[in-house]
Design brief:
The complex is a heterodimer of chains A (255) and B (296).
Chain A lengths: L1 H28 L11 H13 L1 H34 L4 H13 L6 H8 L3 H25 L3 H9 L4 H37 L6 H10 L3 H29 L7
Chain B lengths: L3 H5 L3 H4 L15 H11 L2 H16 L8 H12 L11 H34 L1 H16 L6 H8 L3 H25 L3 H9 L4 H38 L5 H10 L3 H29 L12
Helix pairs in contact in B: 5-13, 6-7, 6-9, 6-11, 6-12, 7-9, 8-9, 9-11, 11-12, 11-13, 12-13
Classes of the chains: A mainly alpha (255), B mainly alpha (296).
Chain lengths: 255, 296
């Protein structure tokens, strides 16, 4: 029964993709758009193996993912530490939340030209903009998670003479972790957007840079194929974060 | 970002009332007065950080990172030097802000219409859901900015490029939120509606849409933030007018103070959009837990 349902949903999904490809082919066949700006689905899909085999494209992808991972790691560290500190000092949590709300209203991509001035076109700039973009959801979710701790648990830890560090490690962190992971999940998608944005706007390396080069050279088919592959990477990255979340946060209450 | 409502949830600590202080030092202050004052009192950290910027920039003078006071003076000259009849807004303000906001508005309206209609279709029809929900989730997880080179191929440097990218960046979020909201409509209400012989139009207009509204609204709120990011990045990438274009133009012509002043304008636009949408959402709708499609 379960397998039957799975086959059915896979078949429907494939059918959906086929309808979109047919619509795309229809646009091509009626010549609504010139061949050199929107090639048909067949040449684009035919290019996928080529592109996957291309060392240049692969190197760009690896560079992008590495930058993404560095930014996500650093932002998590900074966000959790500042979040925990602002919660530890009495009266600091609300002002921090207000400041964070103000900073995260600023569209992070607007900082790219400024970051290019300050840090040049290398990885440093990409990481800096990405951290600005994603540190806020992690920080605010840390505060939010730490706010949800039942006071009785802290009392219980105190009555067992837990040290401050031990209380943080065994009481505060496990309670806050599901919320922190929500922040990380939101941040992971945003980080990829920002890293690719910097690459489209002039960074020296990364998959966005490769796509811009194809676009300037007039290889529309490679541009579209590359875009689809980046989409697959996005799905993969999202899946990986969700998987990690489910592995680590097993005690997350089903609410 | 398939859980947009989890993004609204973290707002709670910012708006939720603080637990009462252990020692009631100001018992004479009315509840109302404190609740009005508290948001202002909580601004001190933000103010301190901005003062910190001023002090740091003065101590380390560089044209790339000017002090806030110089940027504010430039901001005044660039954007607020117009006649009082136009709320002091300068000509430059209108030539920059109008194209950007018109692109954002057009794209958001398009995304709202397509997203809500598509979301309802996906939620109410199991075959369509089976066919298209994997694709919707694919586009949701894709970093949409990567479509800029494709959009440039197809549309050239035109408003259509910016509008397409903003639309494509936001429509999936609205669609999946609508689908979730519609899927979460109480089945008993649907049964009552059919027992009352509501027409299909009446059913959508009076039962499904209102019930799904909180979820749709949450999707819109997140979408406006994403939309603004897309406006800016698409204007950096290819355009001839707009707030993003202003930042880029001054960066390329070494007008660094003007660049910062244009950046400040974008920051303020972002702040206003965020406050307005948050206020609207708080006023009109309560937060609702997500169920259904997106949870898969």
């Amino acid at each position: 029964m379960e397998i039957g349902r799975r086959t059915r949903s896979a078949a429907l999904g494939i059918l959906g993709v086929i309808t979109v490809l047919l619509a795309w082919q229809l646009i091509r066949a009626t010549d609504t758009l010139p061949e050199n700006s929107l090639p048909g689905p067949l040449p684009v899909l035919g290019n996928l193996p080529d592109l996957i085999a291309s060392a240049e494209f692969r190197a760009g992808l690896v560079d992008t993912i590495r930058t993404w991972a560095i930014a996500l790691g650093l932002a998590t560290l900074v966000g959790v530490v500042i979040g925990a500190l602002s919660k530890a000092v009495p009266g600091l949590a609300s002002p921090t939340a207000v400041a964070v709300d103000a900073f995260r209203s600023v569209p992070s991509t607007a900082l790219i030209p400024i970051a290019i001035l300050l840090w040049g076109l290398g990885t440093e700039m990409k990481v800096a903009v990405a951290i600005y973009a994603i540190v806020w959801p992690i920080l605010i979710n840390t505060i939010y998670g730490l706010s949800g701790i039942e006071p009785t648990r802290i009392d219980a830890a105190r009555s067992m003479r837990f040290s401050w560090l031990r209380t943080q490690m065994y009481v505060a962190l496990p309670t806050a972790l599901p919320s922190i992971f929500t922040g990380i999940r939101i941040a992971s998608g945003a980080a990829l957007v920002v890293v690719i944005s910097t690459e489209l706007l002039g960074a020296l390396s990364g998959v966005g840079t490769v796509l811009v080069a194809y676009q300037r050279a007039g290889h529309a088919d490679y541009v579209i194929a590359g875009t689809l592959l980046v989409g697959v990477v996005g799905v993969f990255v999202y899946g990986a974060i969700t998987w990690l979340e489910n592995r680590i946060v097993r005690w997350k209450s089903v609410d | 970002m398939t859980s947009p409502t989890t993004r609204t949830a973290p707002d709670a600590p910012a708006t939720a009332p603080e637990p009462p202080p252990p020692t009631p030092s100001r018992p004479h202050l009315g509840q109302r007065a404190t609740s009005l004052l508290r948001p202002l009192l909580n601004l001190w950290l933000l103010a301190a950080l901005l003062v910190g910027w001023e002090i740091y920039a003065r101590a380390n003078p560089t044209i790339f990172f000017p002090p806030l006071s110089s940027i504010l003076r430039q901001f005044w000259a660039d954007w607020l030097s117009g006649p009082p009849t136009r709320a002091f807004l300068s000509d430059q303000f209108f030539t920059a802000v109008v194209p950007s906001m018109s692109r954002l508005t057009q794209a958001m309206i398009l995304a709202l219409v397509v997203g809500v209609a598509g979301g309802m279709l996906v939620a109410r029809n199991p075959v369509i859901r089976g066919m298209y929900s994997p694709m919707i989730r694919f586009w949701l997880a894709t970093p949409k900015v990567v479509l800029l080179p494709v959009a440039l191929q197809v549309f050239g440097v035109s408003d259509a490029l910016n509008i397409f990218v903003i639309f494509f960046g936001t429509v999936w979020l609205i669609m999946i939120n609508t689908a979730d909201g519609v899927a979460g409509v109480n089945a008993a209400w649907l049964r009552s509606a059919s027992s009352m012989r509501l027409s299909r139009w009446q059913l959508y207009r009076h039962v499904i849409l209102p019930a799904a509204a909180p979820q749709i609204m949450a999707g819109i709120r997140v979408s406006i933030g994403v939309g603004l990011i897309m406006v800016i990045v698409s204007e950096f990438y290819a355009t001839t007018a707009g707030v993003g274009y202003e930042v880029m133009r001054f960066q390329e012509t070494f007008g660094y103070l003007q660049m910062w002043s244009a950046f400040l304008l974008i920051a303020i636009i972002g702040l206003i959009l965020n406050l307005v949408t948050a206020g609207l959402e708080r006023r009109a709708l309560r937060w609702q837990r997500r169920t259904g499609l997106g949870a898969l």
